[in-house]
Amino acid sequence: MAAKMYYDRDVDTAPIENKLIAIIGYGSQAHAHAQNLRDSGFNVVVGLREGSSSRAKAEQAGLRVARIEDATREADVVMLLIPDENQPATYTESIEPHLTDGKALAFGHGFNVHFGRIKPPAGVDVFLVAPKGPGHMLRRVYADGAGMPGIFAVGQDATGQARDIALAYARGIGCTRAGVLETTFKEETETDLFGEQSVLCGGVTHLIQAGFETLVDAGYQPEIAYFETLHEVKLIVDLIYEKGFEGMRHSISNTAEFGDYVTGPRIITDETKATMRDVLSDIQTGKFAQRFIEDAESGFPYMNGERSKMRDHKLETVGKELRDMMPFISKKELEV
Ligand SMILES: NC(=O)C1=CN([C@@H]2O[C@H](COP(=O)(O)OP(=O)(O)OC[C@H]3O[C@@H](n4cnc5c(N)ncnc54)[C@H](OP(=O)(O)O)[C@@H]3O)[C@@H](O)[C@H]2O)C=CC1
Ligand SMILES: CC(=O)[C@](C)(O)C(=O)O
Ligand SMILES: [Mg+2]
Ligand SMILES: [Mg+2]
């Protein structure tokens, strides 16, 4: 049976009208939620820690800022959008003491609730609204009049209103312009981690890097390798995004399409799919979450090492030079 999809016309915004929504944090997701909700006509306060470097940016965007404790105390809905690894401590210190019965606690990703790192009190509603895309793009598509798909889940319904509030919230950030469907904290957490690791982030970056290195190591010019294996990815993916595989394959040459069928399965093999199943299993058992939290608790030695290794890679240095010469590629720093 096909999933029930929710669009603007299916969702009543009354459950969050005349309520105050506290957005905790002002990073990638948070600035987009705060600005989109405000532009959709809802009351928003941004909750930031003492001395936050984001305070000025939020105020410049015309948003009211308060301490996390005060924002929680004032608000009806508290959306926690700081990094997953930092959420439990901030929740315990600054949110939980002010989270009185009848309020709603919300998340953009189910990680901490699903893995039992945050246990909300029985008297509050708990839900998630997870837009399926990066925060900066959530803001960009909203401002362009478009929307980003999203999924929502109710973890706890104390007031009988949790589901309606979650849907209204999803509409407020623009997700029902594109399509929203219901999930569970477990399904959102596991599919989101799997997607970002195997396909969207880990899969795509490592596929590009392997292709680039193969060409450069064989003596081809790095600039050609960059255009071929990175820049053109967007052009191909834009066609897939708009028209599916068939539409993309209609646009490419028969030569490319033939090579797609012959070579694709040599690159993404049965072994790759078996590895994907192992990756999914590590997510389901909590093994990945444990590894992430352990690295975070020691100050991210592994993650910082990977970041710095890549910074000086030819793919990044040549890419920066080439992008600088393309005036149509935005040179603006990301807003937050
Ligand atoms: N990034 C994305 O596109 C997506 C993220 N999500 C989920 O959204 C949530 C937020 O992720 P993301 O937007 O990437 O987060 P960011 O890393 O962009 O969050 C940065 C913000 O968090 C604040 N912050 C960081 N640490 C603390 C702390 N210890 N106490 C108080 N405030 C803190 C920062 O405050 P300051 O300004 O003071 O430094 C800053 O405002 C996560 O649950 C994530 O999984 C879901 C979908 C996509
Ligand atoms: C942008 C998004 O959807 C991710 C990849 O799941 C995330 O940033 O966590
Ligand atoms: Mg995601
Ligand atoms: Mg994610």
UniProtKB/TrEMBL annotation:
Cofactor(s), by name: Mg(2+)
Residues binding substrate, per UniProt: 253
GO MF, one example: ketol-acid reductoisomerase activity
Residues annotated as binding NADP(+): 26-29, 49, 52, 54, 135
Keywords: Amino-acid biosynthesis, Branched-chain amino acid biosynthesis, Isomerase, Magnesium, Metal-binding, NADP, Oxidoreductase
Residue ranges of domain KARI C-terminal knotted in the record: 184-329
Summary of the function given for this chain in its UniProt record: Involved in the biosynthesis of branched-chain amino acids (BCAA). Catalyzes an alkyl-migration followed by a ketol-acid reduction of (S)-2-acetolactate (S2AL) to yield (R)-2,3-dihydroxy-isovalerate. In the isomerase reaction, S2AL is rearranged via a Mg-dependent methyl migration to produce 3-hydroxy-3-methyl-2-ketobutyrate (HMKB). In the reductase reaction, this 2-ketoacid undergoes a metal-dependent reduction by NADPH to yield (R)-2,3-dihydroxy-isovalerate.
Name the UniProt record assigns to this protein: Ketol-acid reductoisomerase (NADP(+))
Organism per entry: Deinococcus humi
